[in-house]
């Protein structure tokens, strides 16, 4: 009886589409050495009234099921030989639109799904407080190679490599319930653009070389870089992600769950004109190492988003390419005043050359993402 009920439910779920959870090879994940299958918890029940759950559920901690809402249930079709989970294949700039394994419903704001932007990185400062080491959040960053994080120079130029750390694959900074764990990496060296000017933030580019490479996986992957200027076009779909404040000033609060905001790219002339209406005055000149995005009321990056990536969909609309790094703004989210970003296309040659030097010798074709 029980097996039939589970089988019927499995079939129903198989037909249901978006809720089904299968491996890439079309099979449900096998658990308990082939005796069970991982199914959503509501499919695994028993006719017997069980009041304490014994034998029915696998408590989430330590469960073999990759999906954190799944439980291991006796396989209705009998034991099978487990097939290995296919290895993860890295593709730069791949957004997990529906998160991984589970789409969280009911998000109305700008919260991202789990691992929606697997290149998103938190740049942390290690600090010892009463003989205990803690991580202080400094800035955002992006993984551009398994060993290299790109961030803003203004975030790290005052810090020694040994004091820095990056966290990859993070989503909710206050909890550890994500199905795939984050990866922390210490920093072996920091490379700041020689033209970086801490006063006006010209050339706000920095590379962090990780002591050990990231393990690329479903929640940790690289963003694409490109020097194709056609990506910068006001029609392109661009967005910025960050854990920064929701608004400017004392009342703004830092975000726990990674946020995203879609922004239009703003042409440099138009941006310079807009910025000339602010306290920067009408003599302000927008340096070519900057680019602008936003300018819609309430839609902007803000304090704490420094170093975070601004990305746009490429020509094929399948992969995201990083075009900017959050640098500065005049307040946050003011109508007609765009946010200012380090221009990653302008800095492309420096970034790629320095990255190749860090990787000791040119890595042929690594940066050509197609
Ligand atoms: N300088 C700020 C930081 O490092 C970023 C400010 C971005 N402001 C804006 N309006 N887009 O956190």
TrEMBL record:
Keyword Cell membrane included in the entry's annotation: no
Gene3D superfamilies: Trypsin-like serine proteases (2.40.10.10)
A cellular component annotation (GO) from this entry: extracellular region
Statement: the UniProt record of this protein carries the keyword Secreted: yes
GO molecular function: serine-type endopeptidase activity
GO biological process, one term: proteolysis
Pfam family, one: Trypsin
Primary site of residence: secreted
Region forming the signal peptide: 1-16
InterPro entries: Peptidase_S1_PA, Peptidase_S1_PA_chymotrypsin, Peptidase_S1A, PPAF-2-like_Clip, Ser/Thr_Proteases_Immune/Dev, Trypsin_dom, TRYPSIN_HIS
Keyword annotations from UniProtKB, A to Z: Disulfide bond, Hydrolase, Protease, Secreted, Signal
Family: Belongs to the peptidase S1 family. CLIP subfamily.
Protein name: Phenoloxidase activating factor
Organism for this UniProt entry: Portunus trituberculatus (Swimming crab)
Organism classification: Eukaryota, Metazoa, Ecdysozoa, Arthropoda, Crustacea
């Amino acid at each position: 009886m029980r097996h039939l009920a589970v089988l019927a439910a499995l079939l129903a779920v198989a037909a249901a589409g978006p809720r089904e959870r299968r491996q890439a090879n079309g099979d449900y994940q096998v658990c308990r050495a082939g005796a069970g299958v991982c199914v959503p918890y509501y499919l695994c029940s028993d006719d017997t009234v069980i009041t304490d759950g014994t034998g029915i559920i696998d408590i989430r901690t330590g469960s073999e099921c990759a999906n954190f809402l799944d439980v291991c249930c006796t396989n209705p079709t009998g034991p099978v030989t487990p097939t290995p989970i296919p290895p993860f294949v890295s593709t730069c700039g791949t957004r997990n639109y529906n998160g991984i394994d589970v789409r969280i419903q009911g998000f109305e704001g700008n919260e991202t799904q789990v691992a929606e932007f697997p290149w998103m990185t938190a740049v942390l400062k290690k600090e010892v407080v009463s003989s205990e080491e803690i991580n202080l959040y400094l800035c955002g960053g992006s993984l551009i190679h398994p060993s290299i994080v790109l961030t803003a120079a203004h975030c790290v130029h005052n810090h020694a490599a040994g004091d820095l750390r990056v966290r990859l694959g993070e989503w909710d900074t206050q909890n550890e319930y994500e199905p795939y764990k984050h990866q922390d990496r210490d920093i072996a060296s920091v490379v700041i653009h020689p033209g970086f000017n801490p006063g006006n933030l010209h050339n706000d580019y920095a590379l962090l070389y990780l002591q050990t490479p990231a393990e690329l996986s479903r929640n940790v992957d690289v963003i694409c870089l490109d020097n194709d200027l056609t990506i910068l076009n006001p029609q392109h779909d661009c967005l910025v992600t960050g854990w920064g404040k929701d608004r400017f000033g004392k009342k703004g609060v830092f975000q726990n769950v990674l946020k995203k905001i879609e922004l239009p790219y703003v042409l440099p002339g138009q941006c310079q004109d807009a910025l000339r209406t602010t306290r920067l005055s009408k003599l302000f000149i927008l340096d070519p190492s900057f680019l602008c995005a936003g300018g819609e009321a309430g839609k902007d990056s803000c304090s704490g988003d420094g170093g975070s990536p601004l990305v746009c969909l490429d020509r094929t609309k399948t992969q995201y390419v990083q075009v900017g790094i959050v640098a500065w703004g005049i307040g946050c989210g003011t109508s007609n005043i765009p946010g200012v970003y380090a221009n990653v296309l302008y800095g492309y040659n420096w970034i790629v050359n320095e990255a190749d030097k860090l990787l000791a010798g040119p890595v042929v074709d690594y940066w050509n993402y197609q």
